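To the team - iron/sulfur cluster complex, inputs and output below.
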Amino acid sequence: MPELNQNPLVVDACKGFGNRPENLIEILHVVQNCAGHLSDEDLRSIADALNLTRAEVHGVVSFYHDFRRKRPGKTIIKICMAEACQAVGCKSIKDHAEETLSTAMGETSVNGDVTLEPIYCLGNCALGPAVMVDGALHGRVTAERFDALVLEASS
Amino acid sequence: MSFAPVTVFVPKDAAALSVGADDVGAALLNEAQKHNFEINLVRNGSRGLLWLEPLVEVDTPNGRMAYGPVTPEDVSGLFEADFLSGGAHALSHGKTDDIPYLANQERVTFARCGLIDPLDLKAYEAHGGLVGLRKALSLGPEEIVVAVKSSGLRGRGGAGFPTGIKWETARTASADQKYICCNADEGDSGTFADRMLMEGDPFALLEGMVIAGRAVGADTGYIYIRSEYPHAIQSMRAAIAIWEGANLLGDDIAGSGQAFHMHMRVGAGAYICGEESSMLDSLEGKRGQVRAKPPIPAISGLFGKPTIVNNVLSLAAVPFILSRGADAYKTYGQGESRGTQPFQLAGDIARGGLVEKAFGVTLSELVNDFGGGTRSGHLVRTAQVGGPLGAYIPETGFDVSMDYESLADAGAMLGHGGVVVFNDTVDMAQQARFAMEFCEIESCGKCTPCRIGSVRGKETLDKIIAGEDLKGNLKVLNDLCILMTDASLCAMGGLTPMPVKSALKHFPDDFNSARQPVE
Ligand SMILES: Cc1cc2nc3c(=O)[nH]c(=O)nc-3n(C[C@H](O)[C@H](O)[C@H](O)COP(=O)(O)O)c2cc1C
Ligand code: SF4
Ligand code: FES
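Output:
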């Protein structure tokens, strides 16, 4: 039952996973990785393709922290806020980040450059504070190093 | 100076990359070219001496020599010091194997990690790989289960359930389809052993899973890896492809007639999906909500079929048990805690990293002897053992033996073997508050004691921290803890009180400092 305005990316992603509902999370990952976020239209197409209700798809999307319904910034910065990083001062990295980027955790900067997010453990707990910038992991991050990472990402 | 190509190792483990291992590798190649040296750069896993990362090793006639932590700026100096022949340098640590941190370990599961290129199958075999699998293929399912049972191996994911008994249940269940699911969700703060193994020795996990498949009669495996681990995901994908190409996965493994197919699933940022039944729902593409037990997964798990859920480290311990024998594994450890545990030293610690030891090492030995105290120079105040649901053990209690029973006796738990060290600036009321907050963020929402209790717990701790009616609120908090412990459906809500109560018990003054209660 193809509808108008189907995003070919979404249709392909679903087809690539055999239009099977048990692959919903994989499909959501693929679509978000390409599109940056999950739009209403895309979720509707996914529900259609997998023969799920929109409520079922919404239930899954809203359950997992990874999935975003809003377009993120050009750079996504995740700051680990879990215990091992707390023990080496991740709070001061967070404060520094929020202040220098004028962006609160969980938000995207007004100019759309960065999204700042908390994350709970990146598996780099011996070398904290740990930060992930667009999928690249960084350890022993100081305020200065953080600034350098932001600069690198925006250049 | 030698002119034959010298092998130089620079880890590609995520922790090493996080402090610049790629840049160091590039600088080494660059500098070697400048000097007209031929070097054979191998990207190995990490040896677990994480405070020395990036740790550069050189293969010399006298053994592997260690230099670290190396920055790209250090590289020209290393060449000047003739490090390719093991020359002396300020960053030199002598022979890697002689570094006390490594020499004093009992590397069983991590014996190969960091020694080889993780995706070099020949090197894997040369270092003892595939012996366990070949042995398993020559044995019947029951014999494999007996070996795992008598090894005393218990689940390393947190609950510590005897692995052999779980396998026996799945083996004797009759069904047209069974599954092996590897729990690689490793969500606990302070733990990274699963990640290190998947990046540094991924074939060992595959080997353990195929053996598990033969033992219980499952021809399909799933590895559920958290999305926070992009490097481990990449490594496992590559490893699976190599094993498929080498006929070690597929319809007829190594000509034995045994079939095993491997699939990977990536999580989506939900701590609760590490709980096994929640993981199964997530594997089915659903919200990761906890299932009521019974039935246990070994009877009715993924898609309602008998399913083994095991942690990465449990599965990766199995090849050793098959190749060297259950007795060889059992000689490590004590009491009902058999074998070795890869401990992970994290937080404010001078020498953070992976320490695999037989059960029975003390917390003090881990934190002080291996770990060297804090990185910051402050005094050690406490360590949280076993992840966000684990207890805070005060420094005065560090003589506790690290095994299942002794930790339970001390009101603590082993969990996944993470040790997070905090210095004397830590505010334990804030740590207790965080435990509740974390439970609020990560609760699956299925049961009220956890979903609502965690919110109330956080609010109550806020009042306590603000000094509001201290006595009354401490009573509320205590009651909440009892309720959550007794009435939660799973250990998320059920164990969140453990860090809270341990903080209250051992550090009461931290809950009393803000303001005197107004009567
Ligand atoms: C909240 C919660 C989180 C858990 N997270 C993990 C995890 O990340 N990895 C893991 O192996 N087990 C985790 N477990 C334990 C699993 O439920 C299960 O006991 C384990 O995967 C079984 O494998 P094992 O017997 O090899 O340990 C968690 C349990 C709970 C209650
Ligand atoms: S205790 Fe928490 S995580 Fe576990 S089932 Fe209940 S609500 Fe879900
Ligand atoms: S706690 Fe920050 S990386 Fe693990």
